[in-house]
TrEMBL record:
The modification N6-lipoyllysine is found at K63. It comes from Microbacterium lacticum. PANTHER family: GLYCINE CLEAVAGE SYSTEM H PROTEIN, GLYCINE CLEAVAGE SYSTEM H PROTEIN-RELATED. Gene3D superfamilies: 2.40.50.100. It comes from the Bacteria. This is Glycine cleavage system H protein. The glycine cleavage system catalyzes the degradation of glycine. The H protein shuttles the methylamine group of glycine from the P protein to the T protein.
Length: 126
């Protein structure tokens, strides 16, 4: 099980786990629940540059289409091909179904929300 307090969060409902200078990014269970059944995931290409706050992908569900925002600026070093092949895995456990890994400035991660701030953002539903 993922230690949710060890992660950082964005107001776009993404979680970030930092290991060295690589940030693993996914959407939260809260976001996955609001989206409904995920049927398609479009992720940025490995090697592409992403900019914090900009759209870098798309998540489609039976209810809506959601944009994936880059939580940090950097270079995409890996995408989760398993999620692309089986988008519904995001609904199983969004914290296990990471989406992208981005090489970042580790100091930038500190500006993201901690778990308590994210829970407050969602009104305690996270």
């Amino acid at each position: 099980m993922t230690d949710l307090t060890a992660l950082k969060y964005t107001d776009e409902h993404e979680w970030v786990a930092l290991s060295g200078d690589v940030a693993t990014v996914g959407i939260t269970d809260y976001a996955a629940d609001k989206l409904g059944d995920v049927v398609f995931v479009d992720l940025p290409s490995v090697g592409s540059a992403v900019t914090a706050g900009d759209v870098c992908g798309e998540i489609e569900s039976t209810k809506s289409v959601g944009e994936l925002y880059a939580p940090l600026s950097g270079e995409v070093v890996e995408i989760n091909d398993d999620v692309v092949a089986d988008p519904a895995s995001v609904n199983g456990n969004a914290f296990d179904a990471w989406l992208v890994k981005i090489r970042v400035d580790p100091a930038a991660v500190e500006a993201l929300m901690d778990r308590a701030a994210y829970v407050a953002l969602t009104g305690g539903e996270a």
